[in-house]
Amino acid sequence: MEVSRKIKYSRTDRLILGVAYVLLGVFVLSIVIPLVYVVLASFMDPTVLNNQGLSFHVKDWTLDAYRRVLENDMIWRGFFNSFIYSLAFAAISVFVTLLAAYPMSKKDFVGRKFFNVIFLITMFFGGGMIPTFILINQLHMVNTVWAILIPGAFNVWNMILARTYYQSIPKELREASSIDGANEIQHFFKIMLPLCLPTAVVLILYYAVGYWNSWFYPMLFLKDSSKFPLQLILREIVLYNSGKTDSIQLEKQD
């Protein structure tokens, strides 16, 4: 039976570990404290919260904020839209990313270096907000769901991640599938995609979480309030409550 030995640290190691633990504790507290404050504040009367701050008296606590949120049809509609948009955007983006990364991972692909340069240029330079809006308008995609799903569906960095994963898969699989008579399309969908499931899951998380928090492009391209995601509806509510707008712009029409 092996006896576990306690690791002995030098004075310098203990000092470094102590500093690291302190910094880690401060970092954790900087995240936890605001979350706890928001949760506690959500149960308080707004008047008491603004005048006195947090109060632990039961009489100052109320569920009115949750009742108002649950009774607000705009917020429920925003939740539904954001959920559908995030799923659709993640599915489209992951499919396009994996599809583009496959030929870029093949060293015998004609024009591979040229397309690599083109992709890298787009990582540093963009068309800008006004040219993008003009393009979307000329494509008649303004105030449609496609205006917020298609333009950002391809991410070069994620394509590079998928391409690197493809290159780690043994080439013998392609040789075996070609012997069985599979073409490139069959090899991609029946062999490569199942093997890339871990990468696909990571990309789905990246795309879905990133899109859930986005609001800028929906603000630019959407006019119909029934298509607003949750973030845009919350923005309108915040602007209305802060007095920066006279009314909640949730009924904009063409």
Protein architecture, described:
This protein is mainly alpha-helical and 254 residues long. It contains 13 helices and no strands. It has helices at residues 11-41, 46-52, 64-70, 73-104, 112-124, 129-138, 146-149, 156-167, 172-179, 184-195, 197-212, 216-221, 230-241. Helix 4 (73-104) crosses helix 8 and helix 4 (73-104) packs across helix 13. It starts with 10 loop residues before the first helix and ends in a 13-residue tail after the last helix.
Beta percentage is under 5%
Mean residue pLDDT: 85
Extract low-pLDDT stretches.
none
Number of helices: 13
Question: From N to C, what is the helix and strand string?
Answer: HHHHHHHHHHHHH
| Class computed from helices, strands and strand pairing | mainly alpha
Share of helical residues: 55-70%
The Rg value, from CA coordinates, equals 26 Å
Tell me about the largest β-sheet. Answer: none
Distance between the termini: 78 Å
Summarize the entry for a quick read.
With 254 residues, the chain is an all-alpha fold. 67% of the residues lie in helices and 0% in strands.
